[in-house]
């Protein structure tokens, strides 16, 4: 491609050069005058020089443009590849906002819920397996838009403000329960809040329900992890949530469970 393009450029310059030189030669022959002939010769020489410079410049430009094209293509390819292969390991937390241009292809779930289409089959299999055990898990929260997240967050901030917290304290406290807009995993389409149909409160007692006990043991088989374990809240930045499950894929889920780490630690160790 690069070689072809250079040949094409050279050929174009050659044709242009021939046309100009031929034009000069014809003019000289027709003149039949020595003085004019010398002048014409000098002019032809000048034209040749100009053409040579033009040729050099054009070749250089063609080379640079090829280089640019190939560099940008390769960086785009790497970016796309990284995005594609690591979509399930996307880190979203108080320190890592979702990318501005983030978008997700959602699969709809009953009850107006939705999840990243790529995690749908595993979620379905997990829910089916839990139900086959006589359990009744319910999805109470899933994908959230930025607007929805902002409303949830602001409502909680307002509650703390009403209790007399300062603006800074209210935001800090609210952020430990409901992530600030742009920093919630629910906006990624990879997170779900699942509760027991018999106990639907989002508090620590949720962990004692048979549904959570089963999910905590088996979720990794379907590519999910309990995202905010009690002993990791200083690393995740979020309080213990024995109902918030995050899809990371089967391989990562098994490894995270085996190592007893949270997603932040798993990703940090991977990059070492
Ligand atoms: Zn959640």
Q: How would the blueprint of this fold be written?
A:
Blueprint: H1 2-31, H2 34-86, E1 106-109, E2 113-116, H3 120-132, E3 137-141, H4 146-162, H5 167-175, E4 191-196, H6 210-218, E5 224-226, H7 233-236, E6 244-247, H8 250-259, H9 263-271
The structure holds zinc ion.
How would you concisely characterize the structure shown here?
The protein is built from nine helices and six strands. The chain has 272 residues and is an alpha+beta fold. It folds into two domains: 2-80; 90-144 and 184-271, 2-Layer Sandwich (Muramoyl-pentapeptide Carboxypeptidase, domain 2).
Which terms would index this structure?
272 residues, alpha+beta, Muramoyl-pentapeptide Carboxypeptidase, domain 2, 2 domains, four-stranded antiparallel beta sheet, two-stranded antiparallel sheet, disordered N terminus, binds zinc ion
Commentary on this structure:
The protein is α+β, with helices and mostly antiparallel strands and 272 residues long. The chain has two domains: 79 residues; 143 residues, 2-Layer Sandwich (Muramoyl-pentapeptide Carboxypeptidase, domain 2), CATH 3.30.1380. It contains nine helices and six strands; from the N terminus they run ααββαβααβαβαβαα. The protein has a four-stranded antiparallel β-sheet with strand order 3-4-6-5. A two-stranded antiparallel ribbon has the order 1-2. β1 and β2 form a beta hairpin. It is globular, with a radius of gyration of 33 Å. The two termini are 39 Å apart. 22% of the residues are buried. Zinc ion (ZN) binds next to β4.
